[in-house]
Amino acid sequence: MYEWIKALHVMAVISWMAAMLYLPRLFVYHADAERGSVQSETFKVMERRLLKGICNPAMIVAWLAGLYLIYEGGWIKSGWLHGKLALVLLLSAFHGLIVRWQKGFAADTNTHTSRFYRMVNEIPALLMVGIVILVIVKPF
Question: Which one of 36, 73, 78, 125 has the fewest beta carbons within 10 angstroms of its own beta carbon?
Answer without folding.
Answer: 36
